[in-house]
Amino acid sequence: MNAPAPIIEIRGVDKYYGAHHVLKQCSTRVDKGEIVVVCGPSGSGKSTLIKTVNALEPIQGGDILIDGASVTAATDLPKLRTKVGMVFQHFELFPHLDILRNLTLAQQIVLGRDVGTARGKAGALLERVGLSAHAGKHPGQLSGGQQQRVAIARALSMDPMAMLFDEPTSALDPEMVNEVLDVMVELAEEGMTMMVVTHEMGFARRVANRVVFMEDGAIIEDSPTDRFFRDAASPQARRFLSKILPH
């Protein structure tokens, strides 16, 4: 019996900025219900890699498949991006719209939902992330942690089959990090397929099925979480862990 196709498959991806080779023959996959954490030193290509998954960054070699369909061949990128929700480092909310409208706009324009359906979905998700009381506020009236939880709710409002997170806590004050990670842990426990770029190794240890370690644009290691933290195979990964894990 054939194994099911992965939700996300990255095949030999190359990416250049001019002459600079920023992604070098990167290959990995994320199966349904799997949580994969991508880590590595600054400048290793982590954020660029995750942005190629929904074509926010074009690639110059290889291919990326979402639920079996090629991203590079896609002619309807907005439709493709509904399949993979994206949460950014700096929230990317519309500052001139209130929170409720931030959650309903794409539902109506991209998915064609009527106002009542979109508002119902938005309200349920705001309750889920503990922000129902803030629906009428604008993003600038919320803390960073609250804005990031809104961003997660907005991505979920499109009913994605997978979620991408690009360093979702790195722009937050330390006391706000856990409120965002708690929402992500809940998603993981509910079986959401997730690919997460993060330096939060406690989160990785707790919920990730696999860890992808990158350095200098290449995937150096791709292994089960326990093995990565217990006995990383590469000297690069061991050096990275020695710097970020508590002694």
From TrEMBL:
Region forming the signal peptide: none
Keyword line: Amino-acid transport, ATP-binding, Cell membrane, Membrane, Nucleotide-binding, Transport
A Pfam family recorded for this sequence: ABC_tran
ABC transporter domain: residues covered: 8-241
Membrane topology: Peripheral membrane protein
Superkingdom assignment: Bacteria
Gene Ontology CC terms: plasma membrane
Chief location bin: membrane
Protein localization: Cell membrane
Protein name in UniProt: Glutamine transport ATP-binding protein GlnQ
Species, as recorded: Achromobacter agilis
